[in-house]
Amino acid sequence: MRNTRDTKLIFDLSRPGCRGAVLPECDVPASDASVLLPAGMLATAPPALPEVTEPQVVRHFVNLSQLNMSVDTHFYPLGSCTMKYNPKRNERAAAMPGFAEVHPYQPDETKQGMLEMLFEMQEILKEISGLEACSLQPAAGAHGELAALLVAAAYFKDMGEDHRRKVLVPDNAHGTNPASAAMAGFDTVTVKTNLDGGVDMDDFHAKLDDDIAVFMITNPNTVGIFESHMRKLADEVHARGGLIYLDGANMNAILGITRPGDFGADMQHYNPHKTFSGPHGGGGPGAGPICVVEKLAPYLPGPVVAKSETTHDGETDAYYSLVTPEKSIGKMRAFFGNTGVLLRAYCYIRTHGPQGLREVSENAVLNANYLLARVKHFLPVPQGDRCMHEFVATASKLKSERGISAMDIAKRLLDFGFHAPTVYFPLTVKESIMIEPTETESKDTLDAFAEVLFRITEEDPGILQDAPHTTRVSRPNEVAAARNPCLACM
């Protein structure tokens, strides 16, 4: 591991007596202090904070920010985890005091604007999914998966069908799918995919029986292919009494073109910070709303927003309130949810409108296919010449012939100002490189990325195997870093 830039910790800059702010004097009268501020609640010494000036603080954090890549500074082709530009107008809307300063404990009548927006968001997500009910509460995609599976478990228990414990999951699914199923108390059974990247129908039929609870499927799937047998899969699961869960991580490919409810889904989650743009990464915050068919609506996590009408002085007005569904699985988190992320997504959707959302997907698919055509000659794409929003290339030939791995390529891209795409997922493709350009990138950016990829594949393996060369930390051991994190190491 190589350190190429000297960045001190903020505590290293501390000097006694330095100040960045002057705090006001305590406004509690001395005569009341013993009552209002009991001695046992008072600190006996100042907190161990660094003593630095305001310019030092600003420079420190700006320098730290420049060590990072972000979607505002670099192309981020992070397949399976859509990373597209976040419109700044949405940030400004979310920062408006009427939204940003709302407190969750306020009475409903004092936050009608926020509740109206959230109600409209529920209605919009229902329409886009083709499903009949919605809860905005889950905090992320995997959280939404878990919520939906808990809804399914509650539904089957209510129906007296506790024997349904089997959840079928394709072998190229996101890893959160089997994890969510296990957390919800189900047993996961893996279904193979075929050479074309779709579900292997023979293996599906061999594992489908009357114990089926849910078939979790991503469509388009993780290799960027739309499941050609989707309607047939859904019909056969329904015939056995099971439910279809649609992993909505890849909704960016089908907005306004097709709806999960129309091709058989009973439940789905959204990643609004991916599909509808918003801050993404760094541990959150995120959001993971779920939509379900009518029969599952009573079990949704609450609260949800309901609309009623009130009449005052002869005039009828809409009134919005928080309610809990009749047989709700309960809260998935404190308060309502990450309303700031939902507000950004709402602004994005309202800005584009129905036709605009369709164009988002059309351009995402166009960009992905253009990039696929540019790179397939030197990075083969096993699942064909066409894709949806993303595709999975392989470095297997480079690895066997020249010792260049997918990880080598990913690390070397950092030297050229491109964030690395997802590598080694899905596991169904050896030395996989998953690439998703999104609709927000220009042809110039895609051409530059393709040219750099080609240049990298022609380089001496030794250069790649020691890359990146220009970043502050070079070639870390990811496994060791995850198991033994050093959060203060600089």
Protein architecture, described:
With 490 residues, the chain is of the alpha/beta class. It folds into two domains: 90-351, Type I PLP-dependent aspartate aminotransferase-like (Major domain) (Aspartate Aminotransferase, domain 2), CATH 3.40.640.10; 355-483, Aspartate Aminotransferase, domain 1 (Alpha-Beta Complex), CATH 3.90.1150. It has helices at 30-36, 54-65, 88-94, 97-100, 112-129, 141-158, 176-183, 201-207, 230-239, 272-275, 339-375, 396-402, 406-413, 443-458, 461-465, 478-483, and strands spanning 2-3, 133-135, 166-170, 187-191, 212-218, 243-247, 267-269, 290-292, 304-312, 315-323, 391-394, 422-423, 432-435, 473-474. The strands form four sheets. The chain has a seven-stranded mixed beta sheet, with helices on both faces. Helix 5 runs parallel beside helix 11 (339-375). Residues 1-5 have low confidence and may be disordered.
